[in-house]
Amino acid sequence: MDTLGKAKRVRIYVSEDDRADGKPLHLAILELLRRENAQGATVLKGVEGFGATGRIHVSNLADVAWQLPVIVEWIDRPEQVERLAPRIKTLVQHGLITVDDTDVLLFEPHPVRDLAATAVAGDVMSREVASVTRSTPVREVVELTVGKTYRAVPVVENGRPVGIVTNGDLVHRGGLGVRLDLLASLDKPEVHDLLERLSQQNRTAGDVMTPDPVTVAVSAPLPAVAELMVRRRLKRLPVIDARGALVGMVSRVDLLRTAGVGFGRKEPVARELGLDGDQPLSRVMRRDVPTVDPESPLPEVFQAVTSTRLNRALVVDADRRPVGLVTDAELLERVTPALRPGAIRSLMQRLPFRHGKGEESAAAHTRGRTAAEVMTREVATVREDVLLSEAVATMLRGENKVLAVTDADGRVVGIVDRADLLHGLIPQGR
Questions:
Q1: I want to staple 427 with a disulfide (CB 3.0 to 4.6 A). Which of 42, 61, 125, 276 is the partner?
Q2: Which pLDDT score is estimated for 162?
Q3: For residue 98, what are the CA distances in angstroms to 8, 26, 105?
Q4: Does this entry carry the keyword DNA-binding (predicted)?
Q5: Residues linked to residue 414 through DSSP beta bridges, in sequence order
């Protein structure tokens, strides 16, 4: 039996009288899933049943109907379930949530799931956005962003964004010294020391923020949002309402998700959204691919990783077929604390990775001396002749940040990241 792919099935068991945010809980769950571009969900009302209390609820006059058990069933891509499950758990105070693997045999949704050609920022943005004030300590700003989807925090006054603290702001003006996405690669004592140093500097969000941030209106059409991101080289934008108040954040991933929905779906859907996803990937891929071979020594791997803004390098065999991927975070994880400062300096300032006591000593302080020993073998690949919308779907399927582009024989001919894909989605002539 041919299937379209793997998915996760989530079942949420609650009661009809459960509530969240002043509304029935099952409706609150549906609204959250809809806002976050989930594939779909169904609410099933039980005829009778019982939960942890042991009380049996039945649909007759002796038992009020709104006390019946309710099941919300949601089927989606594994990475989407992983992303949204924590927020579902926050909504469900009392109940049961189960997750299991399932095969998708058929998936034929409407082309763009209610999003018309006039789809706007408010249709795809994330509404649950953390914000700070000018007086918020920089340490708190960092703690708000660690492990979060958005690595930028709006600074607000009376609900209106007056600045934004980005990854770059924290590194260059906030004294952080290392990008937020690399913090997870440090040991807990190292992270604690970094945060303590930030506390001692007594800097606030107002001291380090970028003032007058670029924003988009909640009613801004998606092509205009995409064009603004590409032209200004921004990864995310605060979204404001007609009064100028912050109502959400829209990111590259939010826009890409509208053009790559579905389980293994290959037909383009971006054009109905005003985006241009039905062109070959070869038109937008970059051909300056940072590569190393499996036996490349660690200093050479550092140089390849820092040679482009991708902060990654492909590991290829003698026939230029991809066999692995090395990221800056993986390199940092492989270096012991003794060499960590030098490794951070190399990655942040794009300098050669050296150690004052010589390469032999440096090798003794690393867990892995060649590309093959530090790489991950899972490399997301697409062929250069696939449609852009299919490449977007592949990018999102595994939360990948880059795709290796190959020819018909599987040899690497290019590479794309999220910025490249978003640039390609902007209709020609804009």
A1: 276
A2: 96
A3: 10, 15, 21
A4: no
A5: 405
Residue pLDDT, tens place only, 59-118: 554 444 456 788 999 998 887 888 888 889 988 988 899 999 998 877 655 433 444 456
Per DSSP bridges, beta strands 69-76 and 5-15 are antiparallel
Per-residue tokens: 134:
């000018």
289 alpha-carbon distance from chain centroid:
23
Tokens standing for 80? 């989407």
Q: What angle do CA 410, 413, 419 make, to 5 degrees?
A: 115
- H or E segment and range at residue 363: helix 359-364
- Percent of the chain beyond pLDDT 70? 77
Inter-residue contact 396 to 290 (CB < 8 Å): no
CATH 3.10.580.10, the chain: domain bounds: 121-261, 282-425
pTM exceeds 0.70, yes or no? no
Q: What is the identity of the amino acid at 341?
A: P
What token pair was written down for 362? 């440096």
**Burial of 27 per CB tally in 10 Å (0-12, 13-18, 19+):** middle
| Cβ-proximal residues to 307 (8 Å cutoff; 6+ apart), any chain | 290, 313, 350
DSSP assignment string, 78-92:
HHHHHHHHHHHHHH-
Instruction: List the structure tokens of 77.
Output: 């891509």
Low-confidence ranges of the chain (pLDDT < 70): 1-4, 37, 47, 49-67, 107-118, 147-149, 259-278, 335-340, 345, 348-367, 398, 427-430
Nearest Cα neighbor of 118 from 31, 220, 248 is: 220
| Residue bearing tokens 């040899």 | 411
Q: How far is CA 277 from CA 151, 272, 421, 423, in A?
A: 27, 10, 9, 10
